[in-house]
Design a protein that fits this description.
With 299 residues, this protein is of the alpha+beta class. It folds into 2 domains: 4-168, Jelly Rolls (Sandwich); 197-288, Homeodomain-like (Arc Repressor Mutant, subunit A). The protein has 11 helices and 11 strands. It has a 6-stranded antiparallel β-sheet with strand order 2-9-4-7-10-11, covered by helices on one side. The protein has a 3-stranded antiparallel β-sheet with strand order 6-5-8. Strand 5 (46-50) and strand 6 (53-57) form a beta hairpin. Helix 2 packs across helix 4 (147-162), helix 6 (203-209) crosses helix 7 (214-225) and helix 8 (229-244) packs across helix 10. It is globular and about 55 Å long. It holds the Pfam family HTH_18. GO terms for molecular function: DNA-binding transcription factor activity; sequence-specific DNA binding. This is AraC-like DNA-binding protein. Residues 187-285 form the HTH araC/xylS-type domain.
C-alpha cells in the first residue's frame, strides 16, 4: 500500500502553514507527506485511520502526526445526508520536523522537542487539560497573523512536549513501506469499508475492488497494512460500536446490529478481545472516564 505522497508546498524549510477548514465534508484520500501535522477538530465526526490504527474521531479531537505517517479522515454517513458548508470545522498546522530544533541549542528545549517528534511518528492523540489548553490557543490562530502565529505555535509545542496526556495511535511495529502502485487499491478498500462496514461484507466483493482473487487479496492486505483483513474490519466495527455504546438510548443489541454483526455472541467476543471490556463494562466505564477507556488501539 502506498498512500499518496502529498506535496504541502511550503515556501521554505522554516515555514509553518496554518489551514482553517470550513467545509461540507472531508474529501482527502489516504495519504502522507514529509511534514508534521497537528489537527484540531472543532466540528465534525467520523472514522480515522492513522498508520495501522483504526478509530472514531469527533469534535474536540487533537492529534499530532509525524512525517510520512499514512492517514485518512472520513466523515460518517450523516454528513452525506446533509451536505452544507460548515459541517466540518478544523484547524491544521503543518511544520517541518526540524523547525524547533533549528531555533535553539538549549538542551532543556531540544530534548523534549526531539522526543515529541519521535513519538509523533506513531501519531498521538492528546486529551484532558492538554487538549483544553492547546485548543484554546489554536482557536485564536489564523492563517495570516504574522508574528503571533510563531508565538502561538511555540506555546502549543511547549504544552505538547511536556504533556503526559496522550495515547499512541499506530502500533510500535508499524512501518510505512508501501509500493506506489498500490495507492489506489488500498484507498479504495478503506473508503469502501468505512462506508459499508455496518452490513455484511463479503471478502470477494472487496477483493474484486483490487482485481484479485480472495487469497491474493488477503496476502496483499496483510502484507501492506500489517494486519489481516478480518482484524481490520472487526476493529472498524468495534470502533463504531464504542461510539454508539456511550449513547444509552441504544441497547447492546442495537449496537451489535448497527455495527455490522449478525449475532450477539460474535459481537461480545470481538468487543472483549479488542477493547478488553464487555460491552456493558465499557458503557459503565465510559460514563466516568476523563481519558480514553481501555488499552485497545481503538480507544
Amino acid at each position: 500500500m502506498k498512500p499518496q505522497l502529498i506535496d504541502i508546498n511550503l515556501p521554505g524549510s522554516k515555514t509553518i502553514q496554518i489551514k482553517k477548514l470550513d467545509t461540507a465534508y472531508l474529501t482527502s484520500p489516504l495519504h502522507f507527506h514529509q511534514l508534521c501535522e497537528l489537527v484540531w477538530v472543532e466540528k465534525s465526526f467520523g472514522k480515522r485511520i492513522v498508520g495501522d490504527h483504526v478509530d472514531n474521531f469527533e469534535a474536540g479531537d487533537l492529534v499530532l502526526m509525524g512525517p510520512n505517517l499514512p492517514h485518512i479522515w472520513k466523515n460518517d454517513e450523516a454528513f452525506q445526508h446533509e451536505i452544507k458548508e460548515g459541517n466540518v470545522k478544523s484547524t491544521v498546522i503543518y511544520f517541518p520536523p526540524d523547525f524547533l530544533l533549528n531555533l535553539t541549542d538549549e538542551q532543556n528545549i531540544l530534548a523534549p522537542t526531539a522526543e515529541l517528534i519521535k513519538r509523533s511518528a506513531r501519531g498521538l492523540r492528546f486529551y484532558g487539560e492538554t487538549s483544553k489548553k492547546v485548543t484554546k490557543i489554536l482557536a485564536g490562530m489564523s492563517e495570516n497573523n504574522g508574528f503571533k502565529k510563531i508565538i502561538y505555535f511555540l506555546q502549543t509545542m511547549e504544552i505538547l512536549s511536556t504533556s503526559q496526556e496522550y495515547k499512541y495511535l499506530a502500533s510500535l511495529s508499524f512501518k510505512n513501506q508501501y509500493d506506489e502502485k498500490d495507492t489506489k487499491r488500498i484507498n479504495d478498500v478503506y473508503q469502501f469499508l468505512m462506508h459499508n462496514f455496518h452490513r455484511n461484507v463479503e471478502l470477494k466483493e472487496v477483493a474484486d475492488l483490487c482485481n484479485m482473487t480472495t487469497n491474493s487479496f488477503c496476502r496483499f492486505f496483510k502484507n501492506r497494512t500489517q494486519k489481516s483483513f478480518t482484524q481490520f474490519l472487526n476493529e472498524l466495527r468495534i470502533g463504531h460500536a464504542c461510539k454508539l455504546i456511550q449513547d444509552e438510548s441504544y441497547s447492546i443489541s442495537d449496537v451489535c446490529y448497527q455495527s455490522g454483526y449478525n449475532n450477539l455472541p460474535n459481537f461480545n467476543k470481538f468487543f472483549k478481545s479488542i477493547t478488553g471490556f464487555t460491552p456493558s463494562q465499557y458503557r459503565k466505564k465510559s460514563k466516568f472516564a476523563d481519558s480514553p477507556v481501555g488499552s485497545s488501539p481503538l480507544l
